Amino acid sequence: MTGHGRGQASRAGIRAEVEVSSVNRRQLDCSVSLPPTLSTLVPRIEEEVRKRLSRGRVGVTVNVQWSAAVRRQRLRVDEDLAEACVKALRKTARRVGLRDDFDASLLLQMPEVVRFEPPVREGELAWPVIREALARALGGLVRMRASEGAALRRDLEARLKKMEARLASIRRRAPAVLEQYRLKLADRLRLAGFEREAADERVLRELALFADRADIAEELTRLESHIAQARGLLRAGESAGRSLDFLAQEMFREATTIGSKANDAGIARDVVDLKAELERLREQVQNIE
């Protein structure tokens, strides 16, 4: 299901803002965008997402701001190395006859003298704040998806009800199919010039074979059972997307069998309507957890 959530958190001079969005996908696929110095946190973020979500293409965007005080804490100056470098430079300047006009800005050009905390340390500092913001963002996304899920379940319930109406119509028409075939067979025999009495045994045998081929009672019973199972899954309120998808496939197979066996125009129309509802149901099921 689609959804969006945003969360913010701040602590000890670190502020994090996290946005999470999701679109429909059968499996869970998570992508994370965050500053390069925090790349070590990607596995942790993905793990937090997996705790809350089981399917969908999920995108996580993380932004972190550091206060001036925290930035100063991250700054490290190797004073011993700085003193040694300045002494060496002054000695060299005197030796070659240059003027000793060095100032503090020279230290910024020495990466080993002035440096920030390495990225791993930065990630450890930021992670508690990012995790808090991520939890809030995921909470918002889950609530949005739950709202959409409730609407989807209502839609699916309505489709199951329409399917039941089609099955009831098929059940009403099914007993008349054999009688219609008997009348057609009798007409063919009469037009062919056969006496009814001479053909009764063969007629009965043909009717028995037709009744066996056209019997759809088992398919109807299985379809009704699948619909009841689907309704139970919807009302259970648990993750049921994969189970519903499987049931929809089974129902489509049973409907196809009924259509091929029924030999009745009215039942054929009901089967077409039934399969149309099943197609819509399968499309919607892809959006359910």
What topology does this entry show?
Layout: E1 3-11, E2 14-23, E3 28-33, H1 42-52, E4 56-66, H2 68-74, E5 75-77, H3 79-96, E6 114-116, H4 119-191, H5 196-214, H6 217-236, H7 241-261, H8 265-285
Describe, in plain words, how this protein is organized in 3D.
It is built from eight helices and six strands. With 289 residues, it is of the alpha+beta class. It folds into three domains: 96 residues; 34 residues; 137 residues, no CATH class. A four-stranded mixed beta sheet has the order 1-2-4-3. A two-stranded antiparallel ribbon has the order 5-6. The longest helix is centred in the middle third of the chain and has 73 residues. It starts with a strand and ends with a helix.
Query: How much strand content do the residues show?
Result: 5-15%
Structural class: alpha+beta
**In one word, what is the shape?**
rod-shaped
- Which H/E pattern describes the elements? EEEHEHEHEHHHHH
Mean pLDDT: 82
Number of domains: 3
Number of helices: 8
Distance between the termini: 7 Å
